[in-house]
Design goal:
The protein has 5 helices and 34 strands. By secondary structure, it is mainly beta. It has a single domain, classed as Maltoporin, Chain A, CATH 2.40.170. The strands form 5 sheets. It has a 22-stranded antiparallel beta barrel. A 5-stranded mixed β-sheet has the order 1-6-7-4-5. Strand 16 and strand 17 form a beta hairpin. It is globular and about 70 Å long.
Length: 603
């Protein structure tokens, strides 16, 4: 870990002492804040949306943020494609710490529970300068907000649904002016044996069970300092479902442990955050679940991260950070390997006039394996008037190869170059009273994309070959209205995306041209209803674009009724209410019409 000394001296250099109280307008701005992402689109999902039912992170984002996921069947591996990028090009963060797998660079969104977080932040558009390797399509942050107020709460959720699906979640929160504690325990198990529509086959070998335990503890040392400890452990045991054309008898078990210690320091002119994190991932794959033979892989990641903000004037601030990540890993196909990566970034934020603000940022990385490019970004927002705002950005980005890319036994390629891309974006926002509209266009040109290609009929190897252009249009509309005791809100989102392999002049596989959703929310006293529709356009499943998966409309409905002054909530969830046949991965049907009922107690 030869870069730790740089991290240490960076911390010491900024460890000043200021006894003046923190001003309200000066605070530590996280990398997902609107202030330092002025030229980008930031979507924030709050607690009421996140925790109104037990669900995976993938289902939550698919229903509420118009993101595209492909799933190998219900509850199986779920991966994202954001703005035409691959699963390795969307960064997923946990309280600001990257949690994409060190082995394959992806996040399986069906293994992460969405519940228990206060806020989920989504930034569409390239973000390697602020977030590091991999955030080419965008970034998602799971956030635990801490408030030092006198409060205590216990929430119990019980659910049961189709295919013998059982849910349980318990969340307790207790806080004072100096102490904050939150513990969340949740689990889900299902036989998952739904019938495949228009066939005599059921979803054999599809059972799963998953458990999650998280804790958040914080102590306010004084008016300027606080310590936070975040922890999360998850365990997933999934049989891998059969397809329409072949049975399966495999099983996949994985567990992940995440620990984060965060020291936040706040003063009049400057703020800082020093984080130490440990991430452990471990999996076992049984080709035949009846045997004790398995393949395995595991990694340990040690991360030190320091962020520092300094307010030069009310309208000018400097933001800088340094992060060191050391990873060791091994497995059935990877011998003991390790790598060490160091990143330093700098951002200048200025608002020269009331209507205009901009950010300029740089990042330089260093690696124990290869040279990392210097990247930069500029973004800006201009308020034309009280209703209209124009925003835009330009950035250079990169993605480093993963452990599997570099070290996979006999197939890994240690000569791989980092992926590089340039991205530009322009957007217009309109907000007036109860209506908002956003329109965004974007263009990304990538080179040296890493792709596993066949060398022979049985041997594959990753190489830098693919040059890709992605561009498109995104549209969002929202209107809400209150009439007496009636509240109505309508939201719709649409994305048109072309992601083209320039060598073949073909659309990349599993990237729809069209993706849309619409939601109607209605509330009346202690009743609420939500009707959601999702449209997935046709996708190609072969690089020659000769085979496809049909487009589909998916409709879901939720009905909630509260009792006992909001201490009891009963929710009914009906999914795929029109019982359509659909797939997101070829030959892997998703569930037909299904139901779930959940009871929530608040104390």
């Amino acid at each position: 870990m030869k870069y730790w000394y740089i991290l240490f001296f960076s911390c010491v250099a900024f460890a000043q002492n200021d006894s003046i109280n923190l001003l309200d307008e000066v605070k530590l701005y996280g990398n997902f804040s609107a202030k330092i992402n002025a030229g980008y689109q930031i979507i924030k999902l709050n607690d009421s949306i996140i925790n109104n039912q037990q669900q995976s992170l993938g289902n939550l984002l698919q229903n509420n943020a118009n993101l595209y996921f492909k799933q190998n069947g219900n509850g199986m591996v779920s991966s994202i494609s954001l703005r035409g990028s691959g699963a390795t090009s969307t960064g997923v963060y946990w309280n600001g710490i990257a949690i994409n797998s060190a082995l394959n660079g992806q996040t399986d969104f069906n293994t992460i529970s969405a519940n228990g977080y206060n806020q989920i932040e989504i930034r569409k558009g390239s973000g390697s300068v602020l977030f590091g390797s991999g955030a080419i399509g965008g970034a998602i942050n799971l956030s635990d907000k801490i408030y030092f107020t006198s409060n205590k709460n216990v929430k119990l959720n019980l659910g049961y649904g189709s295919y013998n699906t059982q849910n349980l979640a318990l969340k307790t929160k207790w806080s004072t002016s100096k102490v904050y504690t939150k513990i969340v325990v949740n689990g889900e198990a299902s036989d998952n044996d739904y019938p495949f529509l228009d066939s005599e086959i059921t979803n054999e070998n599809g059972a799963y069970k998953k458990y999650n335990l998280k804790g958040v503890f914080a102590y306010k040392l004084n008016k300027n300092n606080q310590l936070q400890l975040h922890s999360n452990y998850s365990y997933n045991d999934r049989e891998f479902s059969r397809t329409l054309v072949a049975p399966n008898n495999s099983e996949y078990k994985n567990d992940d442990l995440r620990l984060l210690l965060n020291w936040k320091n706040s003063h009049l002119r400057y703020n800082s955050s020093f984080k130490l994190a440990f991430l452990k991932e471990n999996y076992k794959f049984f080709l035949n679940k009846e045997t004790t033979n398995f393949l395995f892989g595991k990694t340990n990641s040690y991360i030190g991260k320091y962020d520092f903000n300094y307010s030069v004037t009310k309208n000018l601030s400097l933001h800088t950070g340094v992060e060191n990540k050391f990873v060791n890993g091994n497995g059935s196909s990877i011998q003991d390997k390790e790598r060490n990566d160091l990143d330093i970034y700098f951002l200048l934020h200025q608002q020269p006039i009331k209507k205009w603000l901009y950010n300029v940022s740089l990042r330089q990385g260093f690696s124990s394996i290869y040279k990392v490019p210097l990247i930069y970004a500029i973004d800006s927002k201009y308020n034309l008037n009280s209703k209209f705002a124009l925003r835009g950005n330009f950035s250079t980005n990169f993605r480093l190869p993963t452990f599997n890319d570099l070290f996979w036994e006999e197939s890994g390629n240690e000569d791989l170059l980092p992926e590089k891309s340039n991205t530009s974006e322009i957007g217009v926002d309109y907000k007036f009273k109860n209506t908002s509209v956003s329109v965004t266009t974007f263009y990304t040109k990538s080179k040296n994309l890493i792709q596993w290609r066949p060398v022979s009929s049985t041997f594959w190897r990753p190489i830098n070959v693919q040059n890709v252009e992605s561009y498109g249009l995104e549209f969002e509309f929202e209107i809400h209205k209150r009439i007496g005791k009636h509240q109505i809100k309508f939201q719709t989102q649409y994305a048109y995306t072309i992601s083209e392999d320039k060598e073949l002049n073909k659309q990349l596989i599993y990237n729809p041209f069209h993706k849309a959703n619409a939601s109607l929310h209605y509330n009346y006293i202690d009743w609420s209803l939500n009707f959601n529709q999702q449209y997935n356009g046709e996708v190609f499943t072969t690089t020659s674009n000769t085979k496809t998966i049909d487009d589909f409309w998916l409709s879901n409905i939720q009905i909630h009724k509260t009792f006992l002054k909001n201490k009891l909530n009963i929710g009914l969830f009906a999914n795929n209410i029109f019982n359509i046949k659909y797939e997101t991965v070829a030959f892997r049907p998703m569930p037909n019409q299904n139901y779930n009922i959940q009871l929530t107690l608040n104390y």
